[in-house]
Design goal:
It holds the Pfam family Peptidase_M17_N_1. By secondary structure, this protein is an alpha/beta fold. It has helices spanning about 35-40, 85-90, 105-115, 140-160, 165-180, 190-195, 195-205, 245-250, 255-270, 315-330, 345-350, 360-375, 410-415, 450-460; strands at about 15-20, 25, 50-55, 55-65, 90-95, 130, 185, 215-220, 225-230, 230-235, 280-285, 300, 305-310, 335-340, 355-360, 380, 400, 425-430, 435, 445. The chain folds into two domains: about 15-115, Leucine Aminopeptidase, subunit E, domain 1 (3-Layer(aba) Sandwich); about 145-460, Zn peptidases (Aminopeptidase, 3-Layer(aba) Sandwich), CATH 3.40.630. The chain is built from 14 helices and 20 strands.
Length: about 450
């Protein structure tokens, strides 16, 4: 995995002047030749760059940040405006200059590091050219920890299923645990079939070496009783209700929930905040074979609740249900699930704004405020009680895929909530885990969603 890096503090660097747009045009730094900048067409609009000449070439640069605003006020398309500079400035070390008091340096530095991510496992990638000297006053280790968590999530999602099956996801979890002093238990085989029958049913048809498993990480020490559960479907064919080929093209990302909880765990551990944390990842491949689970099957979950399978492509909630029931048996104060769960969530809110569900008002408010303040957008949706009847079929306790096409994200969340009895607050994130087209700081491909919202909310809710 590529590690995020700042330029050394003592590196020979050039200034990058942040220029604010005032009511009457750009507010020019005193030491900058504004005549040259004006002649170059520089107006200070967000993302605009003007290279400043010097005796030996480029002496520095101007970068427009528009009207200063907090991340909460910044439009989503400019979520990481400074990342544009990281992507376009000439090679070398750069230091920020002329920073207005209202500018969020931590947010800017994080966006710069996000822009330097490269996925080069299969193809040589051009390394980042422009490097940032960590701005004075920024918590360097905290920013690096957040970037490292994002990098890990992206790496895991971007890796194709040929190299990211259930065993590979286990290896990634073991590596994370070894680096940070956590213990790992992995449940497979007969123990999985007996104790976690829905995880086993979904994953049993996978090929040799790709058997289903439940990965259980525990961090020592005192800390809030928090359990993170991430959906780890390493590839999703849809099972016997097979997907059309076009819908399978990015199904390597169906373990995006697992990638996000592992990325968040990496950040928490690097910050020394993982004491007492537990992480559960049900890891499977939803494949097609002679022993695939079938539409119409009735499965008995770990909790004893029976589930009628009306669509084998709604497998994520089945594996999460067993993992959530297991997590709830220890009564954590906060239980969080993250999953690339429903197309309905994307229809409702698009790929960039994942919904989350939470009944605890204090927890929901803390999550939303953290998402707003740290430019990690999420949007609250309801556990709508009147829809409970939609997930109750005729011959079993629950239906994994109610018909009708209505409220798919809500009914999936209601299904999962049935398995969290015994836990304190429960929050479920229905993420996409994929950036469909490149944006500043967010290259096309795997992406973290909701991780920093949870990170910054945790001190107040657990």
């Amino acid at each position: 995995m590529t590690e995020p890096e700042f330029a050394p503090a003592d590196a020979e660097s050039r200034p990058l002047w942040l220029v604010v747009q005032g009511d009457d045009g750009p507010i020019w730094p005193e030491s900058v030749d504004s005549a040259f900048a004006k002649a170059s067409g520089f107006t200070g609009k967000p993302g605009q760059i003007c290279l400043l000449p010097g005796e030996d070439g480029v002496a520095g640069a101007l970068f427009g940040i528009g009207k200063p605003a907090s991340p909460a006020d910044r439009p989503a398309r400019e979520r990481f405006t400074l990342a544009r500079a990281a992507e376009t400035l000439p090679e070398g070390a750069w230091r920020l200059a002329g920073v207005p008091d209202s500018y969020d340096l931590t947010h800017g530095a994080l966006g710069w590091l996000f822009a330097q991510y490269r996925f080069d496992r299969y193809k040589k990638a051009e390394p980042p050219k422009a490097r940032l000297v960590c701005p004075e006053g920024v918590d360097r280790e905290a920013v690096l920890a957040m970037a490292a968590g994002e990098y890990l999530a992206r790496d895991l999602i971007n890796t194709p299923a040929s190299d990211m099956g259930p065993g590979d996801l286990e290896a990634a979890a073991r590596d994370l645990a070894a680096r940070h002093g956590a213990s790992v238990e992995v449940i497979t085989g007969e123990a999985l079939a007996e104790g976690f029958p829905m995880i086993h049913a979904v994953g049993r048809a996978a090929g040799q070496g790709r058997a289903p498993r439940l990965i259980d990480l525990r961090f020592p020490g005192e800390g809030p009783a928090v359990t993170l559960v991430g959906k780890g479907v390493c590839f999703d064919t849809g099972g016997l209700d097979i997907k059309p080929s076009a819908s399978m093209l990015i199904m390597k990302k169906d373990m995006g929930g697992a990638a996000n909880v592992l990325g968040l765990t990496n950040t928490l551990a690097r910050l020394g905040r993982a004491g007492g944390l537990r992480v559960l990842v049900p890891a499977v491949e939803n494949a097609v074979a002679g022993d695939s689970f079938r539409p119409g099957d009735v499965l008995t979950s770990r909790k004893g609740v029976t589930v009628e399978v009306n669509n084998t492509d709604a497998e994520g909630r089945l594996i999460l249900a067993d993992a959530l029931a297991y997590a709830a048996e220890e009564s954590p104060r906060l239980l969080v699930s993250m999953a690339t769960l429903t197309g309905a969530a994307r229809v409702a809110l698009g790929p960039d704004l994942p919904p989350f569900f939470c009944d605890d008002e204090a927890v929901a408010d803390a999550l939303f405020r953290a998402s707003r303040d740290h430019a990690d957008p999420i949007w609250r949706m309801p556990f709508w009680e009147p829809y409970e009847a939609m997930i109750e079929p005729a011959i079993a306790d629950l239906d994994n895929a109610p018909g009708g096409g209505f409220a798919g994200a809500i009914t999936a969340a209601l299904f999962l909530r049935r398995f969290t009895e015994g836990a304190g607050a429960y929050a479920h994130f229905d993420i996409y885990g994929w950036q469909p087209s490149a944006a500043p700081g967010r290259p096309k491909g795997g992406v973290g969603q909701g991780m920093r919202a949870i990170l910054h909310a945790l001190p107040t809710i657990a």
